[in-house]
């Protein structure tokens, strides 16, 4: 879950923006998926001009982003940035200062892989290095992948460890757009997708579907709609209390201290499907130019100091 944390002073303008039923309705619609202003106007039953003004106000306080959609001229797509907002009303001088290190890893920049067909890497304009051949994952060009899929196995990403020397990690978060992998696509296709951080198994999430039939907002036009189109944005985080999946505590045995982040030159994030999983339904992993979210695998490393 993406959280915006504000102190008392920072919250004033955000609260002004939220004190409007139309803007709250816009945020609710953007929680479902990205929309353009025309779609928001139609769903809210408001004039285009009124909707545009309210979208601009939400942009001004950085609650949503607006981007040009590739391949559709000047059409603008609005996306919600946060799932919840927390306002701290405690005196600022008594609160610990929190710093965040953010790194957005392209999905083709994996450091290790072990995958089984069906599998493949897809770029902006074509498949990369063939189809259904695990050897393609070791060829030059894999860095350009915008969609990666496989039935079982894993991909490992090694993030640079930018934790300042002498400081301690307070929390680490990862987010990625993922779904199951079926032939073409299938909405009823569960798959148990597991994540490991620094070698520790964090959580297994059962993806319900391989989503297709309706084009993803970033999915290129050449990619047929009867193939996988988009996934769900999932969030994993670890702090002193344990491991969370989308803000739900799922593993209290693994904490931020057990990951030993300060002791390693890199931070390992591994994602995949086990051969002995209950639901072996594969995985699709989406990059910056495929699916519904303009990101790869995003890591947020939080530190606290007085």
Automatic annotation (TrEMBL):
Keyword Disulfide bond present in the record's keywords: the answer is no
Chain coiled-coil ranges: none
| Alphabetical keyword list | DNA-binding, Transcription, Transcription regulation
UniProt domain HTH arsR-type: residue ranges: 13-91
Q: Does this entry carry the keyword DNA-binding?
A: yes
Name the Gene3D superfamilies for this protein: Winged helix-like DNA-binding domain superfamily/Winged helix DNA-binding domain
| Matching PANTHER family | ARSENICAL RESISTANCE OPERON REPRESSOR ARSR-RELATED
Question: What's this protein's name?
Answer: Transcriptional regulator
Q: Which lineage? A: Bacteria, Bacillati, Bacillota, Bacilli, Bacillales
């Amino acid at each position: 879950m993406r959280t915006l944390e504000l102190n008392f002073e920072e919250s004033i303008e955000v609260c002004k923006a939220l004190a409007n039923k139309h803007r709250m309705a816009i945020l609710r619609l953007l929680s479902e998926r990205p929309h353009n202003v025309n779609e928001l106007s139609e769903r809210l039953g408001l004039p285009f001009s009124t909707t545009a003004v309210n979208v601009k106000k939400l942009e001004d306080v950085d609650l949503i982003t607006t981007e040009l959609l590739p391949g559709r001229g000047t059409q603008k797509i609005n996306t919600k940035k946060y799932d919840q907002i927390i306002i701290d009303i405690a005196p600022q001088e008594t609160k610990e200062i929190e710093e965040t290190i953010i790194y957005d890893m392209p999905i083709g920049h994996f450091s290790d892989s072990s995958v089984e067909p069906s599998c493949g890497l897809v770029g902006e304009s074509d498949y990369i290095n063939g189809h259904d051949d695990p050897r393609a994952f070791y060829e030059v060009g894999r860095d350009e992948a915008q969609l990666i899929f496989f039935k079982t196995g894993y991909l490992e990403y090694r993030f640079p460890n930018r934790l300042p020397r002498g400081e301690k990690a307070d929390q680490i978060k990862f987010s990625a757009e993922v779904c199951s992998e079926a032939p073409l696509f299938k909405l009823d296709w569960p798959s148990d997708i597991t994540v490991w951080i620094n070698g520790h198994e964090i959580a297994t999430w059962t993806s319900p579907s391989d989503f297709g039939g309706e084009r993803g907002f970033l999915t290129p036009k050449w990619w047929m709609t009867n193939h996988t189109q988009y996934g769900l944005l999932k969030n994993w985080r670890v702090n002193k209390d344990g491991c969370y999946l989308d803000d739900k505590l799922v593993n209290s045995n693994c904490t931020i201290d057990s990951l030993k982040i300060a002791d390693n030159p890199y931070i390992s994030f591994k994602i995949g499907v086990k051969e002995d999983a209950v639901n072996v339904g594969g995985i699709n992993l989406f990059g910056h130019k495929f699916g519904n979210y303009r990101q790869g695998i995003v890591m947020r490393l939080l530190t606290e100091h007085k």
